[in-house]
């Protein structure tokens, strides 16, 4: 779960990482007093807002109101701005980059630091980024902070401030269950302070059960995405015309690959996760109806659930809302033949193997 | 011989009184596994499928000599369950539970590795050695005894490929589903090393996905250490970059983790790579 900049900065503040003084508003009328010259910043969950006109300076309340009304409602790469953050403008001497993420190969935290802050870290050459794995059984120790400060070639005073921020960022990662915590830029001000200029934090959605503070927090989702999320179904919009329902990320991707072999292209895919729960299959079918694809391809590899039970769920979904789109269905598992017959009887196109299903769905989509 | 599981494996099922634990403890036993105990705090003295239930793992070990565990405990309690198994001295732990908080996984994986305990998962289907037994939730009917070792990052896709192999008369020595989570207790390299050493494994199938660099690391390892023939399939070669593909979060970022990069690395290591999963059996022949 991605947090807005102002939420990320609230966490920074809670963990003792210096941030500029500021506040957030949803309408220009709420701006009454400024903490000095400010930047007015669109709160959207996507990068590139500066170029899109989502960040403006303001020196007076009047200017700030004008900037806020220009930014609020602004569509930034598909995200409509509903909130702006007004915060003290920093006198920048230097911009650094600092981030912590999860390292899959080292199976622990990975610290990243660069003296080339303020730009997209993806575009910074790798030899200018320090990648430092943190051994989970050793954890953060002061030598880690010294390594980071040393790499950034900072003087004694700023080096100590940065090391302290690294320490607090690592603490934040574990205690807040974050999977990413990033400060870009980490600003060294002209008067020698080190302050978080921006903040990006992603909370591990698997840990939300122990973070009630995020309950009901609004996310930028389309209505279909929101529905899918409530049902714990992964929903991905692509640019083809076949609606794919499968169980498991690997199998879903393999289904797309197989469609591609036969000239078909997926438009929407729903991944039910590793489950073949008939209720979930049914919900996915109903959801797919709303996405309105030209063909629906259902590919379920069952573990313990009976195919006829899954087929029954599919039939109920279709009964509830009859579809015009042809449905190619392949359900593998216990009582396979029974399930296949049920689907055939209801006018669906049954398939027994993955390739066969992909071929049939592609053919229908190219009709 | 097989890997991770063998005839001496004595399994305790943690969370045996839940729906999954109850169903799969029987399915594992029917497949040949010696399931000796179950653990659910507060349910000691009871039985599930005639398997005695204990309050603690330590007690199960003391009374039955259990040396391996399969964990079905819900995500909020998974870390506690795994740490309990580690504390009781078990040598093999398979964590089926999905949605385990990543920081919990980091912690228990680190402890397991520091003690040389084989931990598979979390969020994995487990492993199966036809003719010997299985630990986890892989569907029994897709397997046939044979000499191909299968290692996979995926769940249902593994079933798809194993099923296709069996239908073509190609059996398996051991099939290990390492799971798709970001911090796996056992990775491709760990299993490849075991397959290379296992005399009953003659050929290897590796099933990967886009995202991360595990397949590239596997390719490097194969090039340097594996002499047995390897066939691979990488899911997601037609997936668009920058999209999160499903729960496992397979995502292509910074030009890394693409299907192209993985396929190229594997082919450079002498691995035959299938274009679609159903091509795997033909490449094994």
Q: What does it look like?
A:
The complex is a heterodimer of chains A (367) and B (285). Chain A contains 10 helices and 18 strands. Chain A is an alpha+beta fold and 367 residues long. Chain A folds into 3 domains: 21-88, ATP-grasp fold, A domain (Dna Ligase, domain 1); 92-214, 2-Layer Sandwich (D-amino Acid Aminotransferase, Chain A, domain 1); 223-366, Rossmann fold, CATH 3.40.50. In chain A, strand 14, helix 6 (249-261) and strand 15 (266-271) form a beta-alpha-beta unit. The two termini of chain A are 40 Å apart. In chain A, 46% of the residues are buried. Chain B is an alpha/beta fold. Chain B folds into 2 domains: 10-120, Rossmann fold; 139-284, Rossmann fold, CATH 3.40.50. Chain B has helices at residues 19-30, 57-64, 75-87, 102-114, 156-167, 188-197, 214-225, 259-268, 280-284, and strands spanning 10-14, 34-39, 47-48, 51-54, 68-71, 92-95, 118-120, 126-129, 133-136, 145-152, 172-177, 203-209, 230-235, 272-274. In chain B, the strands form 2 sheets. A 7-stranded mixed β-sheet of chain B has the order 3-4-2-1-5-6-7, sandwiched between helices. In chain B, helix 6 (188-197) packs parallel to helix 7. Chain B is globular, with a radius of gyration of 18 Å. The model of chain B has no long low-confidence stretch (mean pLDDT 93). At the A-B interface, helix 6, strand 16, strand 17 and helix 10 of A face helix 4 and helix 5 of B.
From the structure above, extract its key features.
A: 367 residues; alpha+beta; Dna Ligase, domain 1; D-amino Acid Aminotransferase, Chain A, domain 1; Rossmann fold; 3 domains; 6-stranded mixed beta sheet; 34% helix; elongated; B: 285 residues; 7-stranded mixed beta sheet
